[in-house]
Design a protein that fits this description.
141 residues, mainly alpha, two-stranded antiparallel sheet
């Protein structure tokens, strides 16, 4: 029984190491691509994740950070003219983050840069789909 447990433990460590390595590669890729546009890595992640109007809490969840961190990033993007806060249509206490036309254009440029030499580029589209499905099953939300 100990051999089976040790083998599984080693496989888990190896898999975690690979996932961690991929996450670091993706983070470095986002950081370098965002920097070419004069953005921090966090601003790049925020722009990548702003697929439409959303609350700060939703953005923080997508960025995998605390709402206070997302607020800081949103404040900087707002100061730069890339983001606006609008009243939330269904919750008068909440605000929605909305990209300005300049922010939408910057987001498109960033997405283009992120697709170049992506750490996931060596995988065929069907392999990326399989990886996404497997990770979605493993990630508890």
């Amino acid at each position: 029984m100990t051999d089976v447990r040790e083998t599984q433990s080693q496989a888990d460590r190896e898999l975690c190491g690979l996932i961690n390595g991929l996450a670091k590669q993706i983070e470095a890729h986002v950081r370098s691509r965002a920097a070419t546009l004069g953005l921090t890595a966090s601003q790049g992640v925020a722009l990548r994740e702003l697929t439409g109007p959303m609350t700060l809490r939703e953005l923080a969840e997508r960025m995998s950070c605390e709402p206070s961190n997302a607020t800081f990033v949103a404040d900087r993007l707002e100061e730069q003219g890339y983001l606006e806060r609008h009243p939330h249509p269904g919750n008068r206490r909440a605000k929605q983050l909305v990209l300005t036309p300049a922010g939408a254009e910057l987001r498109e440029r960033l997405l283009g840069l992120l697709s170049e030499d992506s750490p996931l580029a060596p995988l065929a589209p069907e392999e990326q789909d399989t990886l996404q499905r497997l990770l979605a099953r493993a990630v508890v939300r």
